[in-house]
Amino acid sequence: MTVDTETTDRTRTPHSAERPDEGRSGVDNAGKSYAAPIRAFDTLDVPEPGTAVAVKEIVAEDDYLSGHYPHLTIYPGVFTIETVQQAARAALAAGGIDAMLTDVTSVRFTGTLVPGDTMTTTLTIGTPDDDGSLVVKARCHRQDGRNCARITLRLRTREAQLR
């Protein structure tokens, strides 16, 4: 299964339940302001349960890149983590599992991403254990084959969170 975020209804992104006006900055019902969430991957391929491949084009015109080091624009590491988290949640959702991030277990950045780069993220997604938590391991690399990050996250199914 391939998910293309250009054609996907943005109201179905993982954040839609949390923010009623998805896709726009604004103020929520409690009076707290928020920014529109980033789209952290462009395409997602889920060849089989437990694996996924996400691709993100690093584009200079993306709002979040301006000012992230004025003389050397780089893709922020926190957005690399967000790519893994969004891709894992979307892959799980394709299999009928709704999960939320609970822990960033480990992160190692090993290379930079700059405008014009393409980041490919390969995810290995574990199955939920008895308490509903699962581990996601990801390797991110640039189009030249160089690694740029290794990330391990822990997610927990929403069903388990409601118990």
From TrEMBL:
Q: What is the scientific name of the source organism?
A: Prauserella halophila
Q: Which InterPro entries does this UniProt record tie to the protein?
A: ApeI-like, FabA_FabZ, HotDog_dom_sf
ApeI dehydratase-like domain: which residues?
A: 51-128
Belongs to which family? Belongs to the thioester dehydratase family. FabZ subfamily.
Which superkingdom heads the taxonomic lineage of this protein's source?
Bacteria
Alphabetized UniProt keyword annotations: Lyase
Region Disordered, annotated ranges? 1-31
Basic and acidic residues bias: where? 7-25
Q: Pfam families given for it?
A: ApeI-like
Q: Which residues form a coiled coil?
A: none
Name of the molecule in the record = ApeI dehydratase-like domain-containing protein
